[in-house]
Give the backbone structure.
Amino acid sequence: MGKSCAYQVVSQSEFSVRLGQILLRYRMRKLLLLILSSAMLIGGLYVAIVELLFAPAIFFRSTIGGIILALLGAYLIWTDFIAPRFGIKTWEDNTSS
């Protein structure tokens, strides 16, 4: 037999608690994304700069890897934090249905 979908009636205070929990989870995910993407950007720049300027022998794989890591971190920061604050549309905004 099919499942029956019964809506549960909740009080206003329970609704606001559930809504607060959902918003907290959303904010924590955004905070975690900001921390990880910032670490990617800083770590990638560190690897690239140290490899280019201070290494006795330059390993271009490390340099290119650092640049790619920094670019990915900068891309995440741009699309998730900077562009929405200024109202700039990204390609992700245009492709969402």
The first helix runs from residue 12 to 53. The chain has a mean pLDDT of 85.
